[in-house]
User: Fold this.
Amino acid sequence: MKDAPAHLLLDGVQKRFGAVVALDGVGLRAAEGSRTAIVGPSGSGKTTLLRVVAGFEAPDAGRIMLGDRVMAEGGTSVPAYRRGIGVVAQDGALFPHLDVRDNIGFGLPRDTPGREARVAALMRMVELDLAMLHRRPDELSGGQQQRVALARALARQPRLMLLDEPFSALDTGLRASTRHAVAEVLRRAGITTVLVTHDQAEALSFADQVAVLRNGRLEQAGTPQEVYFRPVSRAVAEFLGDAVVLPATVAGGVAECALGRVAVARDAPSGAATIMLRPEQIGLEPDTSGLGEVGASEFAGAACTYVVRLLGAAGAVLTIRQPGTLALQVGMRVRLVVSGTAHMLGDGAL
Amino acid sequence: MRATALLVSLASLVPLGFVAAVTIQTGWATASALIWRPRVGELMLNTVLLVGCTVPLSAALAVALAWLTERTDLPGRRVWAWLAVAPLAIPAFVHSYGWISVAPGLHGLPAGVLISVAAYAGFLYLPVAAALRRLDPELEYAAASLGLPPGRVFLRVVLPQLRLAICGGSLLVGLHLLAEYGLFGMVRFDTFTTAIVDQFQSSYNGPAANMLAVVLVACCMALLAFEASARGGARYARLGAGAPRAPALARLGRARIAWLALPVLFSAISVGVPLLTLARWLVRGGAGVWRWGEIGAALGQTLLLAGVGAVLTTLASVAMAWLSVRAPGRLQRLLEAENYLAGSLPGVVVALALVTVTVHAAPIYQTAVTILAAYVLLFLPRAMLSLRASIAQAPVELEQAAAALGRSPGRALWATTMRLAAPGAASGMALVALGITNELTATMMLAPNGTQTLATMFWSYSSEIDYAAAAPYALIMVLSALPLTWLLHAQSRRVAGR
Assistant:
């Protein structure tokens, strides 16, 4: 079952709850063994999308394919228990009446040969101490609960793994390490994975495809670099991180704006445009004839955050982090040095 | 506080002490001769069959009803939920009354089981429905994603989590079965309780009745032990934070009409039959059965006993409730466990104990003091539960603030915690008053000559097969219990957060 070329395909998936349209014609594809992150602000429909793929909800319209099997089409839907899709929920959803062993073995029929050994192998796979075999879920830490939930879902060798904000209940340090561990386990198992999260940093670092969902629509899907540096809209740009968005006049691959002359793509059409830069693309250098003036600074050891007023554009202000070694005084004139190219946003982005 | 709690607990030990004392006093030879005889074996068989049939049937029925009303799109499920609890408003012996006038030939075990299920299944429905509402639906989704079809999800995930609710409810039903007199007396089904009352009425407190009480207490203890082992050490805490997603309702589809038969049938048996019988006798009796002088007297005495009993019981429970919230410790846990044991003793045992004590020790036999003492012992746990819950919600800081403002500890307690706990005390009092209104066994055995409550008047008329004259008393008891049953229903929904 695992050898079949499985990939996930969503086409025009719609779901409404009463008058609320939760999913409005979502289309998405994920290659076999890839990791896709679905991000979006709360209420964007990302959890609904995941529940529709898992089979917990039936879509009103559209098609969902897993490999060559139709999961849902035109209002009919394969029930969750026949899909062979693993799910790890936000809080793990471990069965409180069963211990760790029985939780992990839950999906394996009782007469499975080598069931005990399989449970032990799964525990090693998710790096859980075998001493925890007979613990109850309420005796585990949050990170351990998530590992048990992952092992439980892996036990059935699913063709697709869905992760519903599985790290959001963990504290910051544990979060990163659990995320790395989970990503590594899934990569080694070669399981196609879809992660739902509202944390853009998590999405960018976890996935090889990031899909941005807003108001039930898929705004953009692409590699993390693509969606981060070349967002289709200002909303996508600002959801994925801080963005500097400025009006500019483009001619011959160069944009004239409040920062001075900034490179854009060579084939960019000439004329008035809106450009977007990430603040980390901008460096500061003391320069008495520079276009910026330091308005305020906040020193935080390794880094120092400066608020820079752009003299060329009334009221325009940038917030830029620089190494803490760069000591600029308030009131100093600075030059703004842009590395890489600026991205041109579509019409009406401002 | 500590001393008061200790005193109350010692008093509540009287029935258990009585059982121990009579066993010793009777001597082993006489005791074993009285215990190991065919009559006791017969009663034991009856009791085992009664509990063994009624409890599983009620549990299955309660789970099915709770699932239908909480988790499916059954038409009118709100109404059926209320109707599943409504039978609790009808005293058990009024259920019997309803059935024997419909089917006079009904008697023995089948009658006992049928009427017990009708009268007591609500005690199981309430906790099971509340547990179903609290259940995290994510667990069911997780099980589905692990390849379990819906029926198996119910068996492997939902049902195990209802275990605590089913155990607790079953225990309550079992204890009622052991303690009930009127229900079984009317359909001529002999249990230990009916046998003891019969013995008592023919020969007061002879050793034969006392030994039956010893066996009855042993049955109660066995039931408590069985429940404790069935409940196990499991904790079923919901993991994870935040409010759970509302569960999706199962679609019954075309089968909904077939499923509808279950609540319809249950309501017909448990509400329809008793109320229709009651209505029939009221109509047939006409204005003649409303003997206002007699009814007024019974109502007055009932209200007096219920009111005084409720106040006394609540006062007796204050110290224990306060201790268990503010100063939990080993002594308090011990006292609480002991109160729990004492509270699960049948009324007939409490009554026998008080008869023995008052006849020998104090000249208060057949005075109002004895019957009130019996009420306090019987209904202490009810008062404690509601009082404890509301004391737990009153922050101790208020008591300390009052003390810092110059109130003595006692007055600080009275000015803060007790004021805030007043609603809990009131609902506890209401529950106790309701219990006293419908209490039959202890009242019959202990009340002073000439005292007639609604329950005893009802009982004496229906014993004389004057069903029409008994009807007004039944009606008043049902009407007085209705608001409280509604409260119970609403409370269980609120606890579950919906």
User: Anything to note?
Assistant: Chain A touches chain B through 35 residues (CB under 8 Å). Confidence is low (pLDDT under 50) at residues 1-6 of chain A.
